[in-house]
Amino acid sequence: MSSNPSINLFTWLTANGIKVSITLEELSIPYQVTEVEISTNAQKEPWFIKINPNGRIPAILDDGQRVFESGAILLYLADKYDSEGKISYQFGTSEYYEQLSWIMFQVGGVGPMQGQANHFRLMAGEYSQYAIDRYMAETRRLYSVLNERLGASPWLAGNKYTIADICNYGWVRYGPIALGIDLDDFPHLKRWHDAIHGRTAVQRGLNVPRVVPDEQLRERYRLMEEKTTALQS
Ligand SMILES: N[C@@H](CCC(=O)N[C@@H](CS)C(=O)NCC(=O)O)C(=O)O
């Protein structure tokens, strides 16, 4: 570790939130957690807007330095606290740009598309089969891209598990739980998911800010889907 961290993580138990807690756990960085309960819109309160002007979790404060957007946070943590390259590649190397590409692929692709699939399947105030089909298909297409890559490479950026894997895992974890996606349809992605899921630091990161068993999460999403489906005319 290159300097003394004094990190406060502002988060909630979501696909974007766990990326940061897992990274902090992988790097054994001490941190405090502030729960930002998005179901009560705490992320839109003025105190939090000062930390993330976009009013979304996750965000961190590190000794006064704010960093928001999960991709930026992972890159910041790697730059500042992973000089040994435990879970990141060194700036300027070919693998670094591969790592950066898969991070951008997640924040610009998997996150927004799967987020819309979540919205229309689980949260929308009206039922739209068109929107559900469109975003589910796009999510599955993006999973196929990951699957293809992982058929050719052990990890997304190369031979090492990195923040690019953590970034994408955050969302792939929620595919089966929230959207009923069967990872058996994507065998290389499943192999990769299971390897990441089995890591001790990942298990610790998944319990931030609260422990919620997978069964409880599945049931929560099942009830949400039931409610949205009932709006079908
Ligand atoms: N691009 C952002 C997305 C952040 C995001 O959408 N966070 C969600 C939780 S996963 C959130 O705060 N939602 C509440 C809201 O939209 O107000 C990132 O990668 O950090």
UniProtKB/TrEMBL annotation:
List the Gene3D superfamilies.
1.20.1050.10, Glutaredoxin
Q: Which SUPFAM superfamilies match?
A: GST C-terminal domain-like (SSF47616), Thioredoxin-like (SSF52833)
PROSITE patterns with a match to the protein in the record: GST_CTER, GST_NTER
Q: Where is the GST C-terminal domain?
A: 92-215
Q: Which Pfam families match?
A: GST_C (PF00043), GST_N (PF02798)
Q: CDD domains under this entry? A: GST_N_Ure2p_like (cd03048)
InterPro entries membership: Glutathione-S-Trfase_C-like, Glutathione-S-Trfase_C_sf, Glutathione_S-Trfase, Glutathione_S-Trfase_N, GST_C, Thioredoxin-like_sf
According to the entry, every stretch annotated as the GST N-terminal domain falls at: 4-85
Concerning its family, UniProt says: Belongs to the GST superfamily.
What this protein is called in its record is Glutathione S-transferase
